[in-house]
Request: fold
Amino acid sequence: MALALRTERTEARLLPEQKRRIERAARLKGLSLSDFIVQHADEAARKTIQEHTSWALGDRDRDVFVQALLHPPKPSTRMRDAARRYKKHTGA
Reply:
């Protein structure tokens, strides 16, 4: 990431032992404290977003899901009634 593009700033309060540990890890990687924090926070953010926006199904669950998509059940009487009420209510 180019330095010229970095326009946002944030701040964090750390326990002394957290700061020492993070500084040590940054030195081991040859990064500044700021670069280390940004790099690892961004990686954690990407991972968290991926975990909350993706599904991973096992073989059995995948097969059941695909079969339900390919051969959906007929709508029940309650579902048909709900669809009629919805259309009447929305004018659709």
Notes: DSSP finds four helices and no strands in the chain. The CA atoms of residues 75 and 81 lie 10 Å apart. The two ends are 49 Å apart (CA to CA). Helices lie at 16-29, 33-53, 59-70, 77-90.
